[in-house]
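Structure ticket #2291
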Amino acid sequence: MFSIIAAVFVYVCLSVIFGQEGIWAYNQLQKQKIALTVGVERLQDLNSRLLTESTALQKDRDVIASYAKKMGFIYPGEHLVKINGIPEPPPAVYDPGTKLLRPDIVFIPEWLAKSIAFLAFVFYNLVFSILSVIRYHDPAKV
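Resolution: structure written out below.
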């Protein structure tokens, strides 16, 4: 009877720790969740900056004039002065991030946990059967 309880205990421990919905799989999913959350926050920040810039380009004449002057357009009667030797600021690059692929979750399959528990049951029975035979045939007891 004790060997059945030990085998069930081994199976439950393997399933809880290394099973498909166990602690190990849960920790892997938590790491994926953190990586996705960081990526989503970065995309939300980029989206808010782009919305602000879009709104400014649609409604603010000064922003439109600033962009036009950067592209070399001027109002009639204005003179464009370019100074050599001063580098232009780099254009804004909007990096949407990298594609995150969902890695497979690593876990012990159910059949393997059951097989290990069964082997523990067999091993436990074998050891205690041998011990009982040794005790039964012990010449010191006679």
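Closing remark: The two ends are 29 Å apart (CA to CA).
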